Amino acid sequence: MSDDIVIIGLAITSSWGNGHATTYRSLVKGLHQRRRRVLFLEQDQPWYARHRDAPESPYCETQLYRDLADLRLRFARRIAAADVVIVGSYVCDGREVCDLVLEQARGVRAFYDIDTPVTLSRLAADQCGYLRADQVPGFDIILSFAGGPAIERLQGEFGARRAAPLYCSVDLDAYRPKVMRRSVDLGYMGTYSSDRQPALEALLNEAARRLPSRSFMVVGAQYPEPLDWPRNVRRVQHLPPAQHADFYNRQRFTLNVTRAEMRRCGYSPSVRLFEAAACGAPLISDEWPGLHEVFAPGVEILTAGGAQDVIDVLTQLSEHERLSIAAAARERVLETHSSVQRAAELESRIEDVKSCCSPRRAYARRTPEARCALS
Q1: CA 283 vs CA 63, 146, 186, 246, 328: distances in Å
Q2: Which 3 state secondary structure label does DSSP give 189?
Q3: Model's pTM, two decimal places?
C-alpha cells in the first residue's frame, strides 16, 4: 500500500531551536484525523538527536535517514509511489533532495516553504541552500508560509506553476486555556535572531527596566551570553512543546516579535501567535503588513511600536478588556487556524492540482554549467 503523503522536512522529532517541528506536528495530526497516511522523513542531525522531545508520532510514520544516499537507497520507491510528496524548506542538502523528488515522484510534487521571506531574498542571488530558482517551476505547487505579495512573486518572478499560502496551525487538544495563576505579566518565546533582538530589546527588556515590579519571561535557545537581561526578566533556554500551553497560561500577555525579512514581506504569521491565542493569552505584536488578515488589531490583538506602548497595555488596560481581546483571538483561531482546518486546506490545494488539465512539465536537472549559462 502506497503512502498518501510523504513529507521530507527539517524536523518533527525535535523542537529545539526551530519552529518547523510544531508546525509539522500540527499538520500531520490534522491529516491523520482526516484519515491520511503520512510518512515523515527527517535527516538525523546530532543537535536534534540530543533534544528529541517527540522521537515517534502517533499520527504519522517517522523515519530518520543519514544522508542523501541513504534517503535515495531506502525511500526512493516510497517517494515514487506516494500520492503526494512534499519537500520542506531548510532541509539539509535541500537542492539535491528537490532534484530527487522532481525526478522520482509520480504523484503531486509540492514544496512547503515555511521560510518564504528568507527564500525569496536568497533565490535570485542563488544563495538559497535548500532550493534553486530553476527548481521552482518543476513543482506542481509551492505552498507558502507567507501570503499576499509573496504569492505573486513566486508565480511572476520565479515561474511557480501554482503558489498558495499554507499558514501554520495549532493543535487545539494541546493548546487550550487552563486555570493557572497569571504569574508572568509579559512572556516571549523564540530562538535568538540578531535581526529580531533589537525589537525584543525595545518591546520587552526596556519595558521590564521601566516596570521593575512586573514580571517578564523569555524562552529560547542560542542567545549570546553577554546579553544584559533586566533582573525581572526570567530566562529559560528551552521548553519542550508539552510545556508550551502552561507557559502561555501563566502569562497576562504574550509578545510576538517578527524577524526583519518576514516583517518586510508581511503576511507571515508565526505559529506562536496561534498557540498563545488558543491558550487564551492576549497578544501584543509588532506591526507588519497583512496582520489585519490574521487578527483584527485592537479587537483580537494589540500592536506596539515601542516600550511605552507595551507599558500602557500592562498598566492601563482593564481586566475586562484583557479578557475580551483574549476571547476574540481564541475564537478566531478556533474558526480558521486549527490543525484539522489546515489539513483540509492542504487537501483542497492538492485536489486543485489534480483537477487541472495543463500537462506537467518534464523536469530535467540542470547542471552547474547550464545554470551558469542561464544567469
Answers
A1: 36, 20, 10, 16, 11
A2: strand
A3: 0.88
Domain 5-169+340-374 class in CATH: alpha beta
Q: Is 296 helix (H, G, I), strand (E, B) or coil?
A: coil
CA distance 343 to 341: 5
How many Cβ atoms sit within 10 Å of the Cβ of residue 231? 9
Interatomic CA distance for residues 279 and 176, integer angstroms: 4
The pLDDT value recorded for residue 364 is: 61
CATH of 184-336, one of 1.25.40.10, 3.40.50.2000, 3.30.300.30, 3.40.50.2300: 3.40.50.2000
Helix H segments across 115-259? 116-123, 149-156, 197-200, 206-210, 244-249
Measured in whole angstroms, how far is the alpha carbon of residue 55 from the centre of its chain?
A: 19
First CA to last CA across the chain, in angstroms?
43
Please report how many Cα atoms fall inside a 13 Å half-sphere around the Cα of residue 243, on the Cβ side.
9
Stretch 293-309: mean pLDDT: 97
- Residue 241: its pLDDT value, please? 87
On whether the CB atoms of residues 97 and 71 are closer than 8 A, the answer is: yes
What was the pLDDT predicted at 363? 65
